[in-house]
Amino acid sequence: MTPSRRTTMQWMMTAALLPLARWSPAGAAGIGGAVPFDTVAPWPAVPAAKAATGYGRDPNLMEPRIVWPLTLDRQQRATIDLLGDMILPPDDVSPGAGKLGVGAFVDEWISAPYPVQRADRERVIGGLGWLDAQSRVLNGQPFVAATVAQRAALLDGLSTAAPVGGMAAPVAFMDTLRKLFVLGFYSLPEGKADMGYIGDQPTQGPYPGPSREALAHLDRVLRDMKLASS
Amino acid sequence: MTGAANPAADAPVDVIIVGSGAAGGMAAFSLTKSGLRCLMLEAGRDYDPQAEVNMFAPESDAPLRGASTPDKPFGYFDATVGGGWQIDGEPYTMRAGSDFRWYRPRMLGGRTNHWGRHVPRLGPYDFKPFSRDGLGVDWPIGYDDVAPFYDRVERMIGVNGGRLELENHPDSPADCLMPPPRPRVPEMLIKATAESLGIPVRAAHTAVLTRDMPDPVAPRSACFNATPCTRGCTIGAMFQTTTSLLPMAKATGRLRTVTDAMVSRITMAAPGKAAGVEYVDRKTGLRHRVTARAVVLAAGTGETTRLLLNSGEDGRGLANTSGELGRNLTDSTGASFRAYIPALADRPRYNEDGIGGQHIYIPFWLYREQKRGELDFARGYHFEIGGRFGVPPAEALPRVWGAKLKQAVRSTSGATIGLTLRGEMIPNKDTFCEIDPAVKDRFGIPVLRFSFRWSQNEINQVAHGRRTAHAVFQRMNGTILDPDLPPEKIMTAGGEIIHELGTARMGSNARNSVVDSYGKTWDVDNLVLMDGAIFASGAHKNPTLTILALALRASERLAARMKTGAFA
Predict the structure, then answer these.
(1) To the nearest whole angstrom, how far is the Cα of A105 from the nearest Cα of chain B?
(2) Domains of chain B and any CATH numbers
(3) What's the total number of domains in chain A?
(4) CA contacts within 13 A on the Cβ side of A74
(5) How far does the CA of residue A100 sit from the closest CA of chain B (Å)?
(6) SS3 for B429?
(7) ipTM
(8) pLDDT tens per residue across span B474-516
């Protein structure tokens, strides 16, 4: 039975007073609130970006191309590729993001002369410098030369929702890397296949709608939520 | 654009049409079919979807994976070319304290090449808002005057959708709509949840073909359930004037189209009678004058208003006896709400592309409560529904790395849903556009300056919408991903929804309005406005269907007057 509109309004007003269940990332547990390292390396100065122009308001959509010069030197690119294989590692479903070449996308992104990308460039270039400095503080070696366990400890220290002390900029660096590797990886055919994505396939006739299996799942969800299907 | 050749440049012209989007396209279609010879002037460049729409390329082929940039604000492959939120050398300005965004494509077909395709009809209340709540003004026409044109436009452009059977949401006659697509799983969950709270959910009316639409000149195919509509549609499933009304008008042999023609002012033959227009060739900078028996302005709300304000002799603009020109500017309110729904995690995969955008939506449903004074805002809003498989938004992913992150992406793909609010704004005295006395564009044409302010009405409306959206999310045990900010901080800026309307509104007389219900300016007998500028109020319902219906109605009136010898 459909509830009266008045009931709905009352329900909504009550719901609005309840504290919202906000996202508390699983990875933050036990880390937030404390500085993960005894010494935190200072955030390095980032050299100014080279002057560049974008692709303009009327680029050739049939032949897309990147028109700005890239940023990363060989050493930086190697570190980015290593980070890609750590953040999205190879498994039996898909290759690692570094191996797949998503590092080239990260370089393309941070080299673009647009405001969002310029801000990400500050975080990534600064972060690469900081990561090596911090690794030297902790391990006496740059990041790429550290052991697997040492590198993992560094990334763990950057995976928090509530950075304190000098950790705000390094954590923003890690957030940016995660965003870029996820975007770069899962927009490739290998990444779409990893997600089990089905689409981009013209189908004649009416849209077929959800599969039988998908509908069965929805029925279970509705039953668990005590909702009538409609 | 392909099609019949342009008539000769020196052939006589009956009607000059400024603009080639929804209103200009409809005017060209209707007027040429009536036997009138038309000259269409489009400020943007020529554009052929068949040659320029990259329908199938994956986003990974584009720079930055197709992400939004200042050059291509809706993504690299979006159809908009030559313009956007900014146009090089063609600025607009704002009064101090105002934030207004003005979206201007510079291309044949205008915004129809990349528009939202959600085409609800205005209802009886929407035409008589002042009578209902004492705010704003009534339209000089009612729903019954426009309904026959809605019927024809829906059949003409191709609209799919289902029955609504709701207060102030008129249903279409049986033969107007194509069948709607089946809803997707997240949409079905939202429907079950919202309806359990007494909130209706209905099949949206969408300007995408779900059946073939044969035509000897511009045949269009049913949607093949793939590729993003905003890139443009080479099979013609999505309505855009460049694959439909414009080639059909051209095929009559009575339409001449000139692109890169930036109209700078209306020229006069005598007081109360337009001679034609003056335009600047955007490529050469040369000025040209063309004349006709009548002039139709369909340049889009802002450009049409700018053109009138820059014309006339006395500095207050042409057709502005009422003083209403530039006033009563509105946009739709906008806000987006999003949640992660654990119950949708790891759900079975299938193809959710469908016909592109939403298949179902939440229409406004609280008219009785509003009438009883139980709401703290006037007018309505609706929600457009989103939620599909794809790359999860960053906000929905935990701060983890490694195997855990890969697992989180797999699990979260398809488990976030969104409700996007679009609501009605009531005109206020602080929201208008005018000519900037100090700034000109690269052609020497004075530019538009905007003043914009939301009122408490709109702020309360968005706050109510958020409570509604969050109630729906909470009922399905969702985790809300929205920042906890006051409503005025989550609203879009003025103009951002690209529903700007009202700056040359229609009315019952020359003292309270710029045009009559047929778009004819009260002051200049052969000057007719056909775009969103003539709306007397905005409603929360996306305006393009109404723009098309009013343009068809105005075009047939103009043709009838010209056939009886007017403006000989």
Answers:
(1) 7
(2) 1-7+14-54+84-127+138-161+214-322+429-452+499-536+543-568 (3.50.50.60)
(3) 1
(4) 0
(5) 13
(6) coil
(7) 0.94
(8) 999 999 999 999 999 999 999 999 999 999 999 999 999 999 9
